[in-house]
Amino acid sequence: MDLMLKGKTAAVVGGTRGIGRAIAELLIAEGCNVSICARSQDGVDDAVAALSSGEARVRGTALDASDAKAQADWINDTAEAFGGLDILIANTSAMNLANDEAAWNASFQVDMMATFHGAEAAIPHLKNAEAGAMVFIASIAALHTPGGPKPYGAMKAAVLNYAKGLARSLAPDGIRVNAVSPGNIYFKEGVWGRTEANNPDFFKQQVAANPLGRMGTPEEVARAALFLASPAASFVSGTNLLVDGALTLGVQY
């Protein structure tokens, strides 16, 4: 299936590793121009060097996504450099599982407000796109609460609510907004890679808990995000797509 992404421009928040990196790689493979951002300058430089091949153009900026001005400047610079913006991928999280005020405040700023500020900066550009789209990376933690209250799950639930409301309000402008909620996704530098090294018994329990008998990969999440971001999903907006191997027990309504 042709995703009709060739020649479009995408901005990927958190695009140097894991899910964000996989999304950037697949966008480039589809012929998109891609701009990535992340906190680490070294990480950005390494990712841009690795991603820069073929016809697609790649650029990167080191910034803190919770800094509203820095993120807006990056999005505006991306649109100026590439002659517009078609897609925003909001992939940022503090990954806070603690239950103290500092963790809740950090999660609010990074998971929720960084997504909000990125969307607000992107909207004027997406209104000028032929098929503007936003995809927010959430989590199955938004849909259930194992182990009690956690800021990570609560803020991802807020992101889902925000995505749905934004999808309805931006529909008259031709902008689609969707979310992807990954389950347990394994890559060596990620949470589950570290868990495998530091707590192998718990890691094995979590692998066994999935009906498919394994964890997912960043590329599997990226494929879902690309479809939702693409004109191939032209009548899909306001949805949350689970990529979890049937791990989640609940039914979405």
Assign the CATH topology.
Answer: Rossmann fold
**How many structural domains?**
1
The percentage helix is 40-55%
Number of strands: 7
**CATH architecture descriptor:** 3-Layer(aba) Sandwich
Spans where pLDDT lies below 50 across 5 or more residues: none
Strand portion: 5-15%
Gyration radius (Cα, Å) is 17 Å
Distance between the termini: 29 Å
Strand order of the largest sheet: 3-2-1-4-5-6-7
The H-and-E topology, N to C, reads as EHEHEHEHEHEHHHE
Class from helix and strand fractions: alpha/beta
Structural description of this entry:
By secondary structure, the chain is an alpha/beta fold. The chain has one domain: NAD(P)-binding Rossmann-like Domain (Rossmann fold), CATH 3.40.50.720. 45% of the residues lie in helices and 14% in strands. It has eight helices and seven strands; from the N terminus they run E-H-E-H-E-H-E-H-E-H-E-H-H-H-E. The chain has helices at residues 18-29, 41-51, 68-82, 101-126, 151-170, 191-198, 200-209, 218-229, and strands spanning 9-13, 33-38, 58-62, 87-90, 133-137, 176-182, 240-243. A seven-stranded parallel sheet has the order 3-2-1-4-5-6-7, with helices on both faces. Helix 1 (18-29) packs across helix 8 and helix 6 crosses helix 7. It is globular and about 50 Å long. It starts with 8 loop residues before the first strand and ends in a 10-residue tail after the last strand. 45% of the residues are buried.
Keywords:
single chain; alpha/beta
Summarize the structure.
The chain has 253 residues and is of the alpha/beta class. It has helices at 18-29, 41-51, 68-82, 101-126, 151-170, 191-198, 200-209, 218-229; strands spanning 9-13, 33-38, 58-62, 87-90, 133-137, 176-182, 240-243.
